[in-house]
């Protein structure tokens, strides 16, 4: 009985964590803020919050795109290369004399085409998403290096840098655009039938098809939007840095996936919210700021991101296995349980009455038959 109570409490606590991943991530952010406020009293203020938000903008955009793909039970590891390719596109267009709006439009089109191509590989050619995007990761990275000749793009105009200049409440124009985008995507996925199609596709692909959902179109749209978000991330990167290195976007795909998983997006599809992914991205960026505050080398960032991703996956996987095993045991308990005896003394005291109606032996039966 005690084991049953403990297992029930374990399942309830696990379900609470699973159903409140956003709250868990928010509590982690607040706890980290409080800890850093104790270490450095100047850390806990509005300026620090906006500074971390500005640093998290690239990862937030990538997390939005990765959420749409992961909800459909797919994964895209080429977003870092798409980010670099789109950053190079906007930089080369600006240096060629095109206007800021037209250059950004070129970058968005490149990102959308790259994401659309990933979706075609996955849906029409039936290539597993991890394999297809691993191939396009190298393809887009190589195309980026071919366009630049392996050189950096410098001398970007001031118009591009103005996109990341704070204007209102210490938030830049691109920051306000990202907040508007977060609200729009959260409403799209959470409040519309089209948004629920992403959850249905990832949760049960065949069932979604039987309901009339065009699952191939949903997945292609998810990959295309992922490319658009990566293009926006490339534009933000170029506006914040002011130049474009030849390794722009390297390693961002792992951080985007880690942010989504940390915020409650399931790798098995059909579970999670945009808000959770945003909080996961903010938490990872906050951890990076902690490393800067502790004066640790920059290469610790990737190590911490990988460690967080691995820890969350292991923790989530172990809990899922434990819950499924417990549910299975409860389901089949009535088939394996032994029948209980209410009163053993009554059963033992009963005497078996001898049966006087003995069946005739074979010999007597034969004699009677012979007499007949």
UniProtKB/TrEMBL annotation:
Superkingdom, natural source: Bacteria
Spans traversing the lipid bilayer: 21-39, 51-70, 77-94, 100-122, 129-147, 167-189, 220-244, 256-284, 296-315
Keyword list, A-Z: Cell inner membrane, Cell membrane, Membrane, Transmembrane, Transmembrane helix, Transport
Subcellular localization: Cell inner membrane
Topology term for the membrane: Multi-pass membrane protein
Span list, region Disordered: 338-372
Ranges annotated as biased composition (Polar residues): 354-364
GO MF, one example: transmembrane transporter activity
UniProt-listed Pfam families: BPD_transp_2 (PF02653)
GO cellular component: plasma membrane
Entry keyword annotation includes Transport: yes
PANTHER family: ABC TRANSPORTER PERMEASE PROTEIN YPHD-RELATED-RELATED, AUTOINDUCER 2 IMPORT SYSTEM PERMEASE PROTEIN LSRC
Job of this protein: Part of the ABC transporter complex LsrABCD involved in autoinducer 2 (AI-2) import. Probably responsible for the translocation of the substrate across the membrane.
Subunit structure: The complex is composed of two ATP-binding proteins (LsrA), two transmembrane proteins (LsrC and LsrD) and a solute-binding protein (LsrB).
Designated name of the protein: Autoinducer 2 import system permease protein LsrC
Species classification: Bacteria, Pseudomonadati, Pseudomonadota, Gammaproteobacteria, Enterobacterales
């Amino acid at each position: 009985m005690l084991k049953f109570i403990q297992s029930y409490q374990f399942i309830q606590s696990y379900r609470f964590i699973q159903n409140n991943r956003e709250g868990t991530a928010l509590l982690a952010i607040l706890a980290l803020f409080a800890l850093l406020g104790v270490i450095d009293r100047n850390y806990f203020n509005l300026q620090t919050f906006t500074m971390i938000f500005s640093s998290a903008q690239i990862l937030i955009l990538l997390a939005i795109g990765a959420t749409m793909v992961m909800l459909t039970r797919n994964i895209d590891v080429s977003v870092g290369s798409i980010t670099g390719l789109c950053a190079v596109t906007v930089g080369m267009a600006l240096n060629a004399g095109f206007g800021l709006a037209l250059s950004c439009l070129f970058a968005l089109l490149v990102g959308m085409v790259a994401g659309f191509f990933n979706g075609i590989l996955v849906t029409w050619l039936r290539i597993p998403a991890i394999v297809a995007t691993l191939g396009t990761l190298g393809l887009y990275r190589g195309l980026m290096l071919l366009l630049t000749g392996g050189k950096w793009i410098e001398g970007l105009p001031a118009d591009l840098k103005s996109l990341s200049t704070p204007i209102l409440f210490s938030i830049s124009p691109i920051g306000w655009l990202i907040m508007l985008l977060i609200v729009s995507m959260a409403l799209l996925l959470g409040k519309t039938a089209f948004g629920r199609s992403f959850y249905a596709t990832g949760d049960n692909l065949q069932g979604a098809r039987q309901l009339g959902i065009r699952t191939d179109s949903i997945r292609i749209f998810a990959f295309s939007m992922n490319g658009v978000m990566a293009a926006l991330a490339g534009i933000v990167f170029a506006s914040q840095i002011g130049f474009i290195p030849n390794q722009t976007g390297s390693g961002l795909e792992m951080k985007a996936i880690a942010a989504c998983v940390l915020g409650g997006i399931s790798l098995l599809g059909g579970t999670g919210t945009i808000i959770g992914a945003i909080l996961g991205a903010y938490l990872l960026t906050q951890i990076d700021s902690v490393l800067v505050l502790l004066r640790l080398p920059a290469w610790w960032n990737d190590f911490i991101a990988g460690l967080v991703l691995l820890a969350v996956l292991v923790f989530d996987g172990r809990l899922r296995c434990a819950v499924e095993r417990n549910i299975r045991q409860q389901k089949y308990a009535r088939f394996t349980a032994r029948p209980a005896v209410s009163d053993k003394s009554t059963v033992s005291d009963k005497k078996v009455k001898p049966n006087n109606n003995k069946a005739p032996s074979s010999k007597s039966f034969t004699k009677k038959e012979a007499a007949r």
